[in-house]
């Protein structure tokens, strides 16, 4: 087993706990900030963890600083990218594709 595999094994439980905290389409905020972000799963050292949908830097490798909230998205970057709600529902997951369709004259 190589060093990355050992690290992934050690972090797999905390990563699963982080995903569980955001189950049910909760939005999130970084500890110490009042800006609320849409949540998207992000790859981190071969694991998937919830993070800000706008990919703003967290200032840390500590993904546990990202907290769940039911508050609406206030992040300007998330909102301008059309990320008005979180797409992650928890459990066995697959990233979702959000499409906005405009039908004119049909």
List the SSEs and their pairings.
Blueprint: H1 3-21, E1 27-30, E2 36-37, E3 39-44, E4 47-52, E5 66-69, H2 76-80
Antiparallel strand pairs: 1-2, 1-5, 3-4
Quick take:
The protein has helices at 3-21, 76-80; strands at 27-30, 36-37, 39-44, 47-52, 66-69. It has 106 residues and is α+β, with helices and mostly antiparallel strands.
Structure explained in plain terms:
The chain is α+β, with helices and mostly antiparallel strands. It has one domain. It has 2 helices and 5 strands. It has helices spanning about 5-20, 75-80, and strands at about 25-30, 35, 40-45, 45-50, 65-70. The protein is elongated, with a radius of gyration of 15 Å.
Largest sheet: spatial strand order: 2-1-5
Mean pLDDT rating: 78
Strand content: 15-25%
* Number of DSSP-assigned strands: 5
User: Could you spell the SSE succession in H and E letters?
Assistant: HEEEEEH
Structural Rg = 15 Å
The stretches of 5 or more residues where confidence is low (pLDDT under 50) are: 91-99
What distance lies between the first and last C-alpha atoms, to the nearest angstrom? 59 Å
Descriptive terms for the model:
single chain, alpha+beta, two-stranded antiparallel ribbon, 106 residues
């Amino acid at each position: 087993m190589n060093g990355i595999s050992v690290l992934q094994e050690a972090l797999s439980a905390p990563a699963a706990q982080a995903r569980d905290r955001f189950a049910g389409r909760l939005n999130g905020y970084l500890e110490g900030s009042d800006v609320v972000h849409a949540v998207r799963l992000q790859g981190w050292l071969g694991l998937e963890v919830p993070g800000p949908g706008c990919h703003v830097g967290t200032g840390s490798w500590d993904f546990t600083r990202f907290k769940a909230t039911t508050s609406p998205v206030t992040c300007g970057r998330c909102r301008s990218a059309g990320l008005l709600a979180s797409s992650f529902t928890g459990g066995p997951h697959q990233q979702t594709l959000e499409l906005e369709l405009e039908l004119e004259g049909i």
